[in-house]
Amino acid sequence: MTILEKSIIRFHNVKFGYGISNSILNNVNIDIKQGGFYFLTGKSGAGKTSLLKLMYIGNRITDGNLFMFDKDVDSYSRNEIALIRQNISVVFQDYKLLKHLNVFDNLALPLRIKGDSEETIVRKVTQIVKWVGLKQYIDSYPDILSGGQQQRLSIARSVITNPKIILADEPTGSVDEVSAKKIFSLFEQLHKRGTTIIMATHNENLVKSKNYPKLVIENNSVFLEK
Q: Distance between CA atoms of 193 and 222, rounded to whole angstroms?
């Protein structure tokens, strides 16, 4: 079985909602293939963020089965869920940077939580700031960075631990077109390295310009368009 034939996330008859009368997603049946790149599209309020939250176990499904890394999420222990989350990174539209930490320490934080040595942290941070074009800002604080630079920093922090899955929630939604192209280029580079990427976006021009499959949320369900 090749990488792109293997499912890394699988939804089987999944339902999700907040309370009995507030159904967000119904009968979702989709396979996310390992190493794939997927756009997640749908109208505002359709449930894109809710679907992403299910994928990083930020929310639990109401009914059905969600399989991650070949195992039903409901069968994972609390410790196993914590380990799963170490293999999943989320990139948010509003960056989620810690403004009291400089660029270096924002990037070092997930590595320190992981328990890496300071020597390893310095090496990894030095490498990744070069990759995202922020080497000259390594001692700067997020507030002095442009929106595009803050988003690149957010991406760098999300991938510095080498996650197997990246979930991006409108990562180019609040930056200009030039910055959006640079940010998307970073995701494509990660995809070429074998990282599975699911990117929620309203940018129809971007979606049309790329030959990646789409997860479309419509009428409380999700459809895969290739």
A: 27
